[in-house]
Task: inverse folding
């Protein structure tokens, strides 16, 4: 199935999703009193943060999603400059 989507609308949707992911990650980090994802994931993995496993899995997936969406956004922006 193919769907046509205007570039501007695609950029808006991707940007909205990126903001939502960022807010969700920030919320999880605030819950645990940690400033960055790397520290949080390391502390959760080491067991330093009890019961953080599910949040760590969520953060790891959100970080991966964020990276993929940034690549997608850049590709959409690059298409504009052609």
Result:
């Amino acid at each position: 199935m193919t769907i046509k989507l205007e570039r501007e609308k695609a950029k808006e949707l991707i940007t909205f999703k990126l903001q939502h992911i960022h807010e969700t990650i920030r919320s999880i980090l605030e819950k645990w009193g940690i400033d960055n994802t790397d520290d949080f994931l390391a502390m959760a993995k080491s067991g330093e943060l009890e019961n953080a496993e599910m949040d760590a899995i969520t953060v790891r997936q959100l970080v991966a999603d964020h990276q993929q969406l940034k690549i997608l956004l850049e590709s959409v922006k690059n298409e504009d400059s052609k």
User: Anything to note?
Assistant: Residues 13 and 28 are 23 Å apart (CA to CA). Helices lie at 7-32, 37-46, 53-80. The chain has one domain: 7-80. The radius of gyration is 16 Å.
